[in-house]
Design goal:
Layout: H1 4-38, H2 43-55, E1 73-78, H3 88-102, E2 105-110, H4 112-121, E3 125-128, H5 136-152, E4 158-166, E5 172-180, H6 206-281
Parallel strand pairs: 1-2, 1-4, 2-3
Antiparallel strand pairs: 4-5
Length: about 280
């Protein structure tokens, strides 16, 4: 058994660490609530695009956004630059690798943690920095432009994004969004049937208009997904910290039992030595 002094230091350390974890939990909750209030969705844009696609039959258009020019795919995996997420990044990477095994292609990693996981697996990848809330819009535009450029160049024809979605404050689910080839039914609010061509005057060709609208939609959806990923990060950090606090409390209980047991044994030993000394000298 450890000496009493060591056990006492262990208890003091555990109490200090528990206090620190509680502080980090409070910060994670504050960050989650603040971001939750700021997040916005673009349902009006979705409905407008869906309504347009219902007026013209895009199935007949010969465009790489609609008919893949390549059988290769790109899988974008969204992770973080920070830790304390309880394995959430690992789940994202595992799901992305599973999607990549379904169809050969390329994996694109967002975030430093994802880079480490994929590097350990020995899979080639292209990496981007983690999501920063102040730069989230610029980052979503940068990623959109990069992906669109690769699609138009014919490097890949299929596009999927794997990211953590906050189902609730304590539950995060890894989801996969199939972006390309584009299908109206997969757009939020876009489950209505396509009606076919109407008598519409168009300055550009329908294919060019469809390309621009899909371009806008992809940027908007990436912006939303980036926000959801950040929200999941804060929620996962809170859950992981809470689990750590509970484990620390269990450890501290055992240390306290060892401490009081050692202290009682020491008291008993001192009392026995004291009575033995009195008997010896009486």
């Amino acid at each position: 058994m450890k000496p009493i002094a060591v056990l006492k230091k262990d208890m003091e350390f555990n109490n200090g660490l528990a206090s620190l974890l509680e502080t980090l939990k409070s910060i994670a909750v504050s960050q989650y609530r603040a971001l939750e209030k700021k997040l916005t969705t673009f349902q009006d844009l979705n409905r407008t695009i869906v309504n347009f696609f219902q007026d013209i039959n895009i199935k007949g258009f010969d465009h790489p956004f609609l008919k893949p020019a390549s059988k290769a795919q790109a899988v974008v995996a969204i992770t973080t630059d920070t830790g304390l997420l309880g394995g959430l990044n690992a789940r994202v990477i595992a799901t992305a690798v599973d999607r990549l095994n379904e169809l050969p292609g390329k994996i694109v990693i967002i975030g430093e943690k994802g880079k480490g996981y994929v590097r350990d697996l020995g899979i080639p990848f292209t990496a981007f920095g983690g999501i920063n809330e102040e730069e989230r819009y610029a980052q979503s535009v940068q990623m959109r432009d990069y992906l669109i450029k690769k699609v138009l160049e014919g490097e890949f024809g299929y596009l999927k994004v794997v990211y953590p979605k906050p189902v609730s404050f304590t539950v995060q689910r890894v989801e996969t969004v199939n972006f390309l080839p584009f299908e109206v039914s997969k757009v939020k609010g876009g489950n209505a049937a396509e009606k076919g061509v109407k008598d519409i005057i168009l300055e550009s060709t329908p294919a060019e208009i469809a390309e621009y609208l899909i371009y806008l939609l992809l940027g908007q959806q990436l912006y939303e997904i980036f926000g959801m990923s950040r929200l999941s990060e804060y929620a996962a950090r809170y859950v992981h910290l809470e689990e750590s606090v509970q484990k620390l409390k269990e450890m501290n209980k055992k240390v306290k039992l060892q401490y009081f047991k050692a202290k009682h044994e020491l008291v008993d030993k001192n009392m026995r030595e004291l009575f033995a000394s009195r008997l010896l000298y009486s």
